[in-house]
Amino acid sequence: MHEIIFYNSLTRKKELFKPINDKKVGMYSCGPTVYNYAHIGNFRAYIFSDLVRRVLEDFGYEVKLTMNLTDVDDKTIKNSKENNISLNEYTKKYKNGVWTGKDYKEYAENGNLRFDFILGGLDEGSWITENFSTKFCMELVNNVVKPLHSSLEFLYFYRSKGNSSTFYGDKNCSSGRKCLSDISIKEVYDNCKRCSKKEICSVTIDF
What we know:
The protein is α+β, with helices and mostly antiparallel strands and 207 residues long. The chain is built from five helices and ten strands. The protein has helices at residues 40-58, 74-82, 87-96, 134-145, 185-192; strands spanning 5-8, 13-16, 24-29, 62-67, 114-120, 122-123, 126-127, 154-159, 165-168, 201-206. The strands form four sheets. Strands 5-10-8-9 form a four-stranded antiparallel beta sheet, with no helix packed on it. The chain has a two-stranded antiparallel ribbon with strand order 1-2. A hairpin with a 5-residue loop joins strand 8 (154-159) and strand 9. Helix 2 packs across helix 3.
């Protein structure tokens, strides 16, 4: 198989492409915000990701390309209110205008909204916490997450070497569970401390 070289915008270097799985490649491409029909300015991103997919397939890889549709946005909310219809009803025709293939799936409806923040650690032997900020993690929890304790399902701090912890929102906070509303500054700091070079760390916020 011929070698493929990509420019890595994180390291700012040209690097040899090495997939995690020998013959399989997973791709993610940011898709449209469905407040209107797609226009020519949107198509550049879709054409580019499709071109990369086709090149990889031509090189013999099995490629799974995932692209999201954003339907909860300032524009979609504003336009649905102006039209006096539900958000789902307003965005449906624009979703269908993008694609309705057999692999199209809707995950948001009747589901939870989840945010995952990778705080750092080891990734295939590479140290990836160069931009990690304990301060950012603490500000995220103290200023954004904690005030929303009544709406959250849970806040999960993950560390691959143990000491993971979960704090629950009001509706799931029962006896024996740590309550997000009661989380202390020390607990926030202890869970936001810089990830060591021998583990992977992340924060999950589930609404």
